[in-house]
Amino acid sequence: MKKKRPHKWKNEQPIYRQLMDEVIAGILDRSYQEGQMLPSVRQLAEAYEVNPLTAAKVYRELAREGLVEARRGEGVIVRASVRDGLMRRERTKFIKEEWPALCARLARMEVDLKWLLATASDWQ
Length: 124
Description:
Layout: H1 15-28, H2 41-48, H3 52-64, E1 68-71, E2 75-78, H4 82-108, H5 113-123
Antiparallel strand pairs: 1-2
Helix pairs in contact: 1-3, 2-3
């Protein structure tokens, strides 16, 4: 597994939680397919330049949440049918936590939402 980009960890949240979010993002964007083996603990730790104990904690927490399954002697796989549930969870989280702050910021900057949506296709 190659590191996707240089990573800067934020101080507001534990590194293991930020790394969990990275793995979850990989499931959502299909970098990690359902039923697919995830990188080993050592590979994940090297890719993100973290302690292997941190990477192991990430996999334990993801297993506790029912997103991955540890198979003795094989590794960790993404459980079947988790992407749809994750997508619902992430959308709900966005609408409740991020959208209100984003709308407030747009209002402060006097950015018209209709204009923003109309021009969004130019950025992709």
